[in-house]
Protein 1
Amino acid sequence: MKKILIAVILFAAWCGWRAPASFADTNTPPGTAENARQLYTCGMHPQVIQDHPGNCPICGMKLTPMARSSLNSSTITIDPGTSQKMNLRTDLVTRGPVRRTFRTFGEIDFDETHLTDVTTKFGGWIEKLYADTSGTQVHRGDPLFELYSPEFFDAQISFIAAMNQATTMPSSTAILKAAARTNLFLLGVPPDQITDLEKTRKTTRTFTVTAPQDGFLVEKEAVLGQKVEAGMKLYRIADLGLVWVQAQIYEQDIPFVQLGQEAEVSLSYMPDRKFRGRVTYVYPTVDERTRTVKVRMEFHNPGYLLKPGMFATVELTAELAPDAVLVPDSAVLRSGEKNTVFVALDGGKFEPRVVALGPRSDNDTYQVLSGLNEGERVVTSGQFMLDSESQLREAIQKMMNPNAATPTLATTPMTTNAIAAFPDSTNSIYICPMPEHVSIRYDHPGKCPLCGMTLVPVSEAMLAKVQPGGRILYYTCPMTDDCPTPNHGLVHMDKPGKCPVCGMTLVPVMDNSSAAQTMTNAVMSLPDTLYTCPMPSHADVVSDKPGDCPKCGMALVPTTTVAHGKIAEENWRKQHPVENQP
């Protein structure tokens, strides 16, 4: 309050001591109830307020009467000259899409679905090496190395022997020939090489291992003369035509990231171009150290300019709403409990109005959920003077009539008919009618981000019935019986649907009796005095009347006088459930 008064003092001095006259019309009809108590103030020190004329105790100036009509209205009137001195600037409330653009860093990585390890299904020795350096680009079918293997050589001999025997005894050796062919195939011999062996019937000493896909040798373990075991990784081939970018997104930006969303990356050494890709996966965990969530994006990589291991700048743009009312950020005064803007009206009048804001958009604007309409003009500079005057009037009204309710600033109702008809719609709570999603509550209308259903406004009383996790008893209308159309609370449906009275979406009512029973047992009142045995081992002996312990015969004592008294009281609760309480 002290800061407000100081601001008003500076404003009064700046305007040439014309503050009381410049803010409102002083022509109040005489003889009205409003003139029952006239207040007087000092033009130099507006904090001085008296209910009788006189001189200012600070500067000695004559006190001037305060305009009652201006105090009883939330609208503030300022003459053009004063507005110019206050440097009041206005801007229009516009309509457009709500877009949020944010930037983060990312690291280029291999596409894990295009990584291939080169191994063999039999052991041997490398006798010739074709791909002898890492980083070499290879194509599918290119030879990598030649491997001598006794197991491979024996398999060829068995296949040739089966074929030779089949020419003399075809009926009895057909199974042996098929088994020998299958053995070669399971060892990784290509079908065309098996066909050549069947035609030539000549064995080869070594087996040539070829590249299974196009790409680059990102890992090389094969060395000439190396003894190879079955299953040993000798090469890793990566196809860099498609790469991943792993980005770190802060928690507050995660709601703006969606699968399939377009993303752009730029490199520090190539500032003149950007690469376009798509979000393909949002990881389900948060890094405990950086408080970020990893997001994976896929990018085509023409010319192999995106190299794994590089850092990149990632830019994501999310369209939160295709069409919404937008207000400049500079027009909003935030007090912690509410957001206020001043709407410029005709004739030099300014109206304070409480607004409900949605997410921030680009160009320093915010989505307006309620309180403003498109085309209205709001104050974007100097509005702190108007706010000081508005709060000063509120304080004066409380002084003039302490028992009166505090006037509220103007608000604009919701445009949806069902929401506008709902009692206290500006302070409603919204939930999704899906039983699995009722655990999330929203403070604004819209669509459920999980299933896309329209959010339903509910009162605090209705929200207490819609408890998550319980068995669904029935579906009912979220409208309360104090709305214009009664009997909404009598709607009980076995299945979801629409209310037959007003057509609103029904919400589920859950059976939360078990949770309520547990809560009641935890807080149930105890008798004024409980008695228990002084022996800690007999804490299960507890009574609301004095007497003797049935186990040891000792006299019972109050639970407050022994160390195990709390244990005895808990035993009393267990022995006397809540349903047995009076």
Note: The chain has five domains: 2-85, 89-99+321-399, 112-238, 417-515, 526-577.
Protein 2
Amino acid sequence: MMGLVEPKVKRSGGQSGLGRGDKLRRMRRTWRLVAISLFLGALFFGALAGPRLLALNSQTREGLRLYTELIQKSKEMYGSEVSYRDLVYASIQGMLRTLDPHTNFLSPEAYGSMRDRQKESFYGLGILVGVRDGKLTVITPIAGGPADKLGMRAGDVIYRIEGEPTETMTLEDAVRKLKGPRDTTVNITVVRRGYPEPFDLAITRDQVAQETVQYSYMLTEEVGYLMIREFQRSTGREVAESLAELKKLGMKSLIVDLRNNGGGLLDQAIEVADQFVPAGSKIVETRGRLSNADTVYYSSGKYEELGVPVVVIVSGGTASAAEILSGAIQDHDVGLILGEPTWGKGLVQTVYTLPYGSGMALTTAKYHTPSGRLIQRDYSSYWDYYTKYDPNADPSSNEDNGLPAYQTDLGRKVYGGGGITPDERSEPTLLPVFIQFLRGRAAFLKFSVDYGNRHEIDSPDWQPPPEILAEFKKWLVDEELAEVDELDEAFAEAEVRDQGTVQIHYEIINTAFGVAAGHKVLAATDNQIQEAFELFPEAADLLATRQALESAKESSGQVAGN
């Protein structure tokens, strides 16, 4: 930030002669300067001053004096203890909230976490962890990673990290403690089912790739499946490698799963879209208040044409960069969109570095798809925006619901200003309440660990035997997770029996062979994935029409793309 100077405190050599009162006054003065610096930083960027300093007129100076006095008075007179930092950060967030839902101040911790997520790799233990039944649990160790080499297993509970109990940590705090510099050691205490006592492991951190392509495999001999979790530094490369491998395996059709993909980096969304749309095609356009915010991005043509029918699955949690990819595929008629209307996050955030390790994601433009439709939903009411409340919406209809209409390359009607509306609406099947109850207590995971200790699971094609539900019900009673009468009543429903078997099957395969093999089990009963199969003929017709049109243009000497 130009013109902002980090406050410096004079230090004397040796023992300080300052009393406690002097130190407190010095701390107050320091935080006053911090408050002014951060407030000015947000003010400068909020006014889009760029590299130029804003002249402080008398009204601005009066406002800053009022602001610092307000901070000071709140700190001194508030009925409970409150820190200067909390007051300053909250006031900045309150100011930015008046702009739009996605302009956001990033504390040093949040800014550092964001930068870590954008890296292609980090140094850690090589494990996927989550909270199961309130405990920090290993979902799966990454093959060949530091934890895997020491024998950590799916289902292991990390009870302590460097002697500190994990039950009081958030998942983010625990992951932060597990990461660290390369070749450093982290000491953890592990609780493993079947072991009478916890045991300690000292694991040396090593490089761990942050893969954003969560799954890539063949669902059938001809249908490939690709799930992109988010868009970060390595996503374009990962997708290119995955598509090349799927083609080698005989892929004739492709499902791209973007459900709950919250977005990420714009350049990576463009890089991925480049692998789907025709050469020279518009991928996305940004439009803003300042002229330098207006940019059109086109496909480079450096990738070989995919040339297979594509169905993209989206959800209400699909946002930002994932909507850019979905919109480009839909507008250029190279694939069909299945699922629920996406979130509608079409505001471009430019991330600026602020003093003291903090940052700000400032909205500088809006995203428009190739056909010109705005991705961003209306946010005049924050409540309606975050709850997605729309009294006029009909979730079973593809009608416009009052949104402006646009046309794809082949003349199909699409709508703007409300996220990406799917070509075919489909809602996910919800799990029965009792199955959710058991999942919340990690019952399926714990049972799978015990079952794997008693039985040999020698192939990813293993199928649950008919008696496994009876064994599971007895295990639930022995573990005091449910009563016999309760189980008899719940499992009398066919849906509970079917989903119970699927969840057991998934956890056993996941524990034995990893998350990709486990996910393939779930995919077989995922209604949206199965509905995607039914759309392949229509997607193939769309692709053939598109290719015929391009061939006709080439033969007449016209240039494709828009």
Note: The longest helix spans residues 527-555.
